[in-house]
Amino acid sequence: MADVEEQGRKQSEEFTDESEEEDSEEEPKLKYERLSNGVTEILQKDAASCMTVHDKFLALGTHFGKVFLLDIQGNVTQKFEISSVKINQISLDESGEHVGICSEDGKVQVFGLYTREGFHENFDCPVKVVALHPQFTRSNYKQFVTGGNKLLLYERNWLNRWKTSVLHEGEGSITNIQWRANLIAWANNVGVKIYDIGTKQRITNVLRDNVGLRPDMYPCSLCWKNNSTLIVGWGTSIKICVVKERNATEMRDLPSRYVEIVSAFDTEFFISGLAPLADQLVTLYFVKENSDHMDEEFRARPRLDIIQPLPETCEEISSDALTVRNFQDNECRDYRLEHAEGESLFYIISPKDIVVAKERDQDDHIDWLLEKKKYEEALMAAEISFKNIKRHDVQKIGMAYINHLVEKGDYESAARKCQKVLGKNMELWENEVYRFKTIGQLKAISQYLPRGDLRLRPAIYEMILHEFLKTDYEGFATLIREWPGELYNNMAIVQAVTDHLKRDPTNRTLLTTLAELYTYDQRYDKALEIYLKLRHKDVYQLIHKHNLFASIEDKIVLLMDFDKEKAVDMLLDNEDKLSTDRVVEELADRPELLHVYLHKLFKRDHHKGQKFHERQIGLYAEYDRPNLLPFLRDSTHCPLEKALEVCQQRNFVEETVFLLSRMGNCRRALQMIMEELEDVDKAIEFAKEQDDAELWEDLISYSIDKPPFITGLLNNIGTHVDPILLIHRIKEGMEIPNLRDSLVKILQDYNLQILLREGCKKILVADSLSLLQKMHRTQMRGVRVDEENICESCHATILPSDMAKPFSVVVFHCRHMFHKECLPSSGTIPGVQFCNICSAKKRRPGNGILEMKK
Predict the structure, then answer these.
(1) CA-CA 20 to 30 A from 124: which of 161, 727, 747, 804?
(2) pTM
(3) Which CATH fold topology does 361-447 show?
């Protein structure tokens, strides 16, 4: 069968290579192959007149009166000598066990292919058509019809004799009969009729449109689509008729069924045959010889079209002009179209040729795409339908696509497709790499090479790296970064890079790449040396990742020159690997770097670098004065005398004032503020912080002859010193700026203080009253006394066992209880008693609140 399909593909090109749409981009719907083998030999000596298709075999009739049974490849399986003249029609029942044959000399034979028993009759006129009941083999009546001048129904009666009935006559020769289920459709010179064999009623008469055409030259084509749909083609007209059940209320004397024409339209050419294809139609056309719009060589070639019927027109889906043998000599009546039920197989029969048309499968679709050089679509179609394709291989299609892209010069796309097409085939990968090398396009394929679990030989990767190293340093560096070091021989590549550096020793790209190669090779010291030389940002990552702290002890200055912040953070984060003493020792000759390191160390922990605080005083004074005062405030290990000496040498007044105050010399500190800074606000703030009356006296004494200072004092000392003391000491007649405003502020501050005191007094009185009321309510509550309570003096039960006897109990507010006789005599205040226990504890709980007597 595969050989037949291969031959068919070649023949399909033969049939359609001269079609009207030779260069069309629209894919054909059908493919063609010539029915050969035994058929070829038959048609060389004879000519085909008719053919019938069964799903198991074919039955071919010839002009010399022979009938051949063929398999689907065209091989002859049986031969029957029926007549010496043309076989007009062959009919098979659904089982394929019985055949009906009629010929031009009036012979009609109906017999079993396996029994040869049946009906044999000779008529005195030509019999054009014969049709067996679809269930002829199973039926008891063995019905069939013949058509000549009359439509005759033959059936076997209970005596096993043949009974003949005339179903129709008088409208000329019958040229076609099609029997489906209980419906018989036939065509004569007037039109098409349908007869219901079940109800024995003729149910319709479809008149023919092209009455000017000779029925014998342009015969009617009939085809049942299903049990109720008949397709009629005659001349250039097509009608689709649907048999429907008539409503019971409308019947009267009418047949129980009627026919509705659901579609009727005209075609461009004469119809030689019809066949259904899903909801579409396959039509075989005989092309008019006098068509003006066709080229000469196409005029007599039959066309096979697929059309989509619409109610009043049709839409052409595809159209193929077929080059059958001797097509120039054929007439419309010489062509027939037969189809296999349930299969998309269509047989075009002509006197000297039989062509099989079939729907194109996925392999054919891919063939067409490849022919049109639509490789990407072909590859996609093959990938989607890889389980169904038989003649194609996805990888071979992919290779054809890659070859096509290379031929076009689209090397990038070709290389990209290699990933998808070559997959895990190492041999194909290496072949492609060498091909790209031959055409000078190794760069294009480099980024798509396998680099995961699937890998090529190291020599392949090294070849590409050497190619890049010759022409593209940046591309070489990119591959080194992207490719795992295990893909190639690292030492060989290092040597190659070293050789290139001899010619260009300062090339940053090559140096950076060499450092990465050293890293892959675990020669971190050499990589670190290159990174430091280049001041590369990845140096810190390299140190951290590979724990190279032992290697950087003598390179701390280089690291800090490159990036102080990152270097210091790294050193402080890894104090366990690089001690502070070691870092300070390395930075001793670079005090500005040492200060940065110690400053960050101090910020992290005020106590960790305490032994360097004395050195830090000079470093802050030299390189970072704004942080000197915060350092002096926060440090508890800084020698104050040393700090004071440094600050005085450099005339740092604020820092000196702080140190003097911290050392207890507040008067000297205040004096410096007043004399050197001349900042009364700062002096007042300093006096407030110290809260020392003598300092306030010194401040007033120093300010008394300086009007601006007096103004500042008047505005700020109201809450710390009595302003009257300052006002009394102001000399009479001294002009003081903003004196009125200052006095008003003093008065406002005084009024505010009075208001605050009154408010506090009111709150205090209200709280005292509330608490007194609460205490009173508490003391007025009753106290439960029962047999569980004891006397706090004698420790006996507070209540007597005999409640009938008189007793007296005293209960204090503190909840201590006594027998009255156990209490000592009244104290210094007559009539007032106190709890012995609470009095001993000096708690003074008050006098007794309850005295119980009986």
Answers:
(1) 161
(2) 0.57
(3) 1.25.40
